[in-house]
UniProtKB/TrEMBL annotation:
CDD domains from the UniProt entry: MFS_YfcJ_like (cd17489)
Iron as UniProt keyword: no
Entry's Gene Ontology cellular component terms: plasma membrane
Origin species: Paenibacillus catalpae
SUPFAM superfamilies in the cross-refs: MFS general substrate transporter
Example of a GO MF term: transmembrane transporter activity
Cellular localisation: Cell membrane
Major facilitator superfamily (MFS) profile domain residues: 22-409
Keywords on record: Membrane, Transmembrane, Transmembrane helix, Transport
Gene3D superfamilies for the chain: MFS general substrate transporter like domains
Organism ancestry: Bacteria, Bacillati, Bacillota, Bacilli, Bacillales
Protein name: Predicted arabinose efflux permease, MFS family
Name of one Pfam family that matches: MFS_1
């Protein structure tokens, strides 16, 4: 398949700043949409029950959303590379806003299920698009640091959305809640229309073509038809993040019940401390990598994450949980942006939409499969053994990372 010639860009690719206008706009858009998404995650099971649904159906409210997002990510990634980032972003945010507002008009369960599916698809489009556009505007040598800052504000959404949701439901109703989130989504749409990252993307593609002519680069089509939907070069870091997300899902899902079983109260403090440690890590990981190198940072954090999970399994007091939550949050905050950056920088500029989609498929699948798989195992093992087994998964993550490093050194002729 022939590719159109790349138009020369007058401006050279010299901006090495992270906090450019487009990066700030993308960060704001993502933060606003994540706040809306977290509000809906908190309220949706209650809304299903309010409309007369069963507890089982209420529990599936997140499943409809997650499956729709997961199954459409490969197609979204291909469309981002084929049709451009901004059209997919705008389509995603428009549909996201419409479905959010329509929640306020829903009066029966089938319509709500349909909206949850459409919401999952639009979330997949908007989130994959913003992540890819961020990789377009960030300098290559500051990719991990930039992605760390970009993801930092997602922590804000997780921190404020649940309490804000419950407060709004106390003073108003579901219709008002969803109208307000619709307004927030509309603000995100208006900001999205002002993003001009495509110019920077074309400059990066031109620079890549000059450094490595297309005839000398790896041909994506050579990997077979799956490469139209999955970026092969993003698979190694995606495998590592799969093991990481499988392990970390235990804390997301089972830490409250583990605390209750062990008579530990005020578990909410643990999540606050964990979020604070995660936020702190986003400021530290970039300089840390510049000082010691990415291989050391990755290895240390994979090992430390396993230690944190093992420590949680042996905890019997709130203070012990807080100590391990600090280590857990810090290591998790270091690993995800670094692995995401590796998935992106392993790939040429023209296929970074697929690279981001491949990475987030692994991340989402690990969280979903982990929650289900550990739940099944909890019927046969005590909860502390679940955390311990999750810690042992880091052995596989370290092995996958070592294989990835050795393969890259071999390919580079080192």
């Amino acid at each position: 398949m022939t590719t159109p010639p790349v138009r020369a860009i007058a401006e050279p690719l010299t901006d090495t700043r992270i906090w450019t206008a487009d990066f700030i706009k993308l960060t704001i858009v993502t933060t606003l949409l994540r706040i809306c998404t977290q509000i809906q995650i908190t309220s949706m099971p209650l809304f299903f029950l309010y409309l007369g649904g069963s507890n089982a159906l209420a529990g599936l409210s997140m499943t409809f959303f997650t499956l729709a997002a997961l199954l459409t990510r490969p197609l979204i990634g291909m469309m981002l590379d084929t049709y451009g980032r901004k059209p997919i972003l705008l389509w995603g945010v428009v549909v996201y806003t419409i479905t959010t507002v329509l929640y306020g008009f829903v009066a029966f369960i089938p319509a709500l299920i349909f909206l949850r599916i459409m919401h999952g698809i639009s979330f997949s489009a908007s989130s994959t698009a913003t992540s890819t556009m961020v990789s377009d505007v960030l300098p290559e040598n500051k990719m991990t640091q930039g992605i760390s800052y970009f993801g930092l504000f997602g922590t804000l959404a997780v921190a404020i959305a649940p309490s804000a949701t419950l407060y709004l439901l106390e003073v108003s109703d579901y219709a008002v809640l969803y109208y307000l989130t619709g307004i927030v989504s509309l603000i995100a749409l208006l900001i999205s229309m002002r993003i001009e990252s495509e110019k920077n993307r074309h400059r990066k593609e031109l620079a890549a073509d000059i450094a490595h002519p297309p005839s000398k680069r790896h041909s994506p089509d050579a990997a077979g038809p799956w490469n139209k939907l999955i970026e092969i070069r993003a698979i190694p870091p995606s495998v590592v993040v799969l093991f990481v997300s499988l392990a970390t899902s235990t804390v997301m899902v089972f830490l409250p019940s583990f605390a209750i079983d062990n008579g530990i109260r005020h578990i909410g403090v643990v999540f606050v401390v964990q979020a604070a440690a995660l936020a702190l890590s986003r400021f530290i990981v970039g300089p840390w990598i510049a000082w010691t190198g990415p291989r050391f940072v990755m290895s240390v954090n994979l090992l430390a994450l396993g230690v944190a999970l093992a420590g949680i399994s042996f905890s019997s007091t709130l203070w012990e949980l807080i100590i391990w939550a600090v280590l857990f949050g810090f290591t998790n905050g270091c690993l995800i942006p670094q692995l995401n950056a590796r998935a992106i920088t392993n790939t040429d500029q023209a296929n970074r939409g697929k690279a981001n989609a491949t990475f987030y498929i692994a991340l989402d699948f690990g969280i979903g499969a982990g929650a289900a798989g550990w739940g099944l195992l909890s019927d046969f093992f005590e909860m502390r053994w679940i955390f311990l087994l999750a810690g042992f998964l880091m052995i596989f993550a370290l092995s996958a990372f070592a294989y990835m490093e050795s393969s890259q050194r071999t390919n580079a002729g080192i």
